Amino acid sequence: MKFHLKVWRQKDPKSPGRLEDYEADNIPADASFLEMLDIVNAGLTGKNIEPIQFESDCREGICGNCSLTINGVPHGPGRGTTCQLYMRKFRDGDTITIEPFRADPFPVQRDLVVNRAAFDRIIQAGGFISERSGSAPDANSVPIPKTTADEAMDAAACIGCGACAAACPNGSAMLFVSAKVAHLGLLPQGKPEKDRRVLGMVRQMDQEGFGNCSNYYACEAVCPANVPAAFIARMNREFTAASAKEMAGLPV
Amino acid sequence: MTTSPAAKAAGPCAGQIWLFSSIGKKTVVAATGILLVAFVVGHLLGNLTIFLGPDALNSYAAKLHSLGPALWAIRAALLGILVAHIYFTMLLWKENHAARPQKYIASNPVGTTVFARTMRLSGLIVLAFVIFHLAHFTVRVVDPSFATMTTTLDGHKVHDVYRMVVTGFSNGPVVLVYVVGLFLLTFHLSHGIGSLFQTLGITNRRIRRTYEIGGRALAWALYAGYISIPVSIFFFGLGKGAIQ
Ligand code: HEM
Ligand code: FES
To answer: Is residue B40 lining ligand 1, measured as CB closer than 6 Å?
Structure first.
């Protein structure tokens, strides 16, 4: 297959960037999007042009590193990560625009690579369980209702890729934060720190400069892990409830 | 157990910290939004008494005005609610803009609706409409003759609201302002009503669709109810005979 690419090139965080045109020729239909870029880069190296910088790690949809916005949609058309997107999804001869994930707290490092350390700092503000809870317990030694376990699993599916914040017109990271708050807070090991966690993570999110949720649901539409925006509603009420406890002087 | 520094920061000013957090600000918008919707529903029910004849509308209006100081308290509360709604949406607007300074060149608004994306525009047009509406029927500066229209009801001299409304809506451009202004309110509420359940955290993934459809239905029902009054007067001659 053959594609016309418009790719965001930017030398470093301070330089202005712009879209540049490249041709992708002889691309197998079953190549993944990242493999297509590998092929284009191999060609560029031969022509003594700096290869296009982009991030990837697992290339099997679990690490959340492949942060590309394809034709205005983080991770491109369909659900799933960029590494799990195959060129057969496109039509031969298509023009494809590739931009980095956009959100103020995700500064562009180079070309398509952005710095997502803001997410790490949000996790450090409460996305953990402080007490060591031992190795994996025997099945059913701690009974957890099936609906609760399922709900926690749906939230735990979040791979922290940042597509939610990149898709949101407000640059809001609420879907990511709410998934972490729910997945840890729903289960017995994480419950004792529930209030402290939601307060810490939401405040850190605000401090990092992520936007506020306007209930656009663009996040949910692009999430490769199918995390539903209902977790944001849950986080909203948990944050307000925990704040009310604080206001009443109760320990959180 | 370690306490994260952010979680420890609250203390005595926990209320203020909540209020100006992302979630707090949005909660104020949703809570004031509900109160405004409640007002809009109540106001419509009162206005619909126009279809029961001059005495029904005039006695409803006279009863409202007889509340005296209580009426002023309600007006002041409504103004406060509206100001808070607008103030917090403008704070959100500023922050949201800063959080996403660079738009995508190949923009593609997946998942969102046109109603959601135009909340600020529709809201500001509604604000302009509300100001016109108050100037028209409350302060009565658009047509000063409205202020001097009186009638007798059960032997008392009262303001002739019926005559004022029928005269007011006999004017083509004025009717157009109402039809357009109210349409933008419907646009605003098409997203707003369904959305507030999400903001207040009283929804789940199954029921969300119901709230969204119900909210949109309520928004359009309000539109039909409100414009039925100017449309009946302007196009179908409602009340023309009664005010001769
Ligand atoms: C008069 C000027 C108004 C302005 C400028 C305005 C502006 C806005 C904006 C920008 C939002 C979205 C906030 C966000 O999601 O980030 C919003 C939400 C909302 N507005 Fe308004 N609005 C106005 C009047 C009204 C009126 C008259 C009503 C009701 C009758 C109303 C009801 C709502 C509701 C229910 C929401 C949804 C709250 C939520 O999503 O949780 N607004 N408004
Ligand atoms: S590279 Fe790991 S998810 Fe795509």
So the answer is: yes
The finding on whether B36 has its CB within 6 A of some atom of ligand 1 is yes
Q: Is residue A252 part of a domain?
A: no
Q: How many domains does chain A have?
A: 2
Q: How far apart are CA A125 and CA A129, in angstroms?
A: 11
Q: Which has more pLDDT, A9 or B239?
A: A9
Of B1, B106, B199, the CB nearest to A97: B106
- Asked if residue A147 and residue A43 are part of one domain, the reply reads no
Q: Are residues A170 and A231 in the same domain?
A: yes
Q: Which of A68-77, A116-125, A133-142, B33-42 has the lowest mean pLDDT?
A: A133-142
Report pLDDT digits (tens) over A173-186: 999 999 999 999 99
Range of the domain at A9: 3-110
List the residue whose alpha carbon is closest to atom 39 of ligand 1. Answer: B196
User: Out of B17, B92, B110, whose CB is closest to A221?
Assistant: B110
User: Across residues B63-80, what is the average pLDDT?
Assistant: 95
- Is the pLDDT at B7 greater than 70? The verdict is no
Based on the fold, state whether residues A181 and A229 are members of the same structural domain.
Answer: yes
